[in-house]
Structure formats: structure tokens, C-alpha cells
Amino acid sequence: EGRKVLTLFGFLSNKKGHTFAIEAMKTLPEEVVLLFAGGQHPDDHTDYVPSLRRLVAQLQLENRVRFLDYLPQEQIPAIMSVTDIALVPYTESSGSGSLALLMAYGLPILASPIAPHIQIEGEIKGCLSLLPELSAEGIAQAVPALITNPIQRDRLHRAALAYAETHSYHHIAKETLKVYQKVLTPTS
Known about the structure:
Layout: E1 4-9, H1 18-25, E2 32-37, H2 48-58, E3 65-67, H3 76-82, E4 85-88, H4 98-104, E5 109-111, H5 115-123, E6 129-130, H6 136-147, H7 150-166, H8 169-184
Parallel strand pairs: 1-2, 1-4, 2-3, 4-5, 5-6
């Protein structure tokens, strides 16, 4: 309560930029906490997750960085409801549904400027807040600016929902049906 929550959602993977988020926490205000809402991927047999925990301990951020491990489906809405800003500091596209789910919840998303994110932002302007560069410093500068700007967070919220709607299965099915109807309709 009284804290601002940053959430990095999904399986913990080295291509999702967790270390940038942890290092940014060193300079972010004390009321900002970071949630890693997802556990180690079952196919990951590396030292990645323990190394993240060691970095948190080394930087003495245990009271501000929380590891929630894998979340059952019924717990996801609670995490999304407490999230003020979703972080997506990916170093490459993860190919997962994490970003899509964040958009479906309409969360304000602070994302790395990788090609897939730039393409998404180009499709519906304002659905992502892109970092100028992927770095801990970039995150540390962007988070307070976004936290203190409810108008910008609301714009991101609305644009994320719009993006999610145009990419929903329902919408895609309707558009596909239109194509079939057009192709199958005889012309005079």
C-alpha cells in the first residue's frame, strides 16, 4: 500500500532484460517496488534465475524486488490490478504471450526499443512507451516521469486496449471471414 508497482510479467528469461530492471531499482524512489511475476521456465536449466536473486541481494534490494514465481491463471488478475507500470525491457522478442496479455489488461507499458516493439508502436501510436535506449539508466529516468503523469498512463491504457482488441482472436476471425466472403461472392 502506498507503493508504485512495476511488473515484469512472464517466465524469467535472459532475453527479457530483468537485470536492467533490477539495476534501475538502485536509483528509483523507495516507494517503487518491482515484481517478477513468473518463474523459471521448465526448460531452463541455467543459473539465470539464481543469478537474478544474487544480484538483488548484492544490491540490497530484497525489500523492493519480489519474485512471485509461476502464477496460476486465477492469480493473474490480482497482479495486473496492482501494477502501475508494466516493464518490457526485452533484449529480443520473446515470442511469448506476456506482452499481449499486458496489453489485453490495458496496462501502461514501458518497453525497450527493439524492432518488434517499434513495429507495434507504429501500428497503434501510444500503445507502448518506448525507452530511448535499453539501459538501467533509461528505465530509471522513464519510470518516475511515467508514474507522475496520469494523463500519459491513461493514454497508454486506452491505446493498449485498442491494440489488444484489433489483435484479438475474435477480431481476426471476423476479418478472415470478410476475406472469405469477398472471395466466394460471385461478381457480376
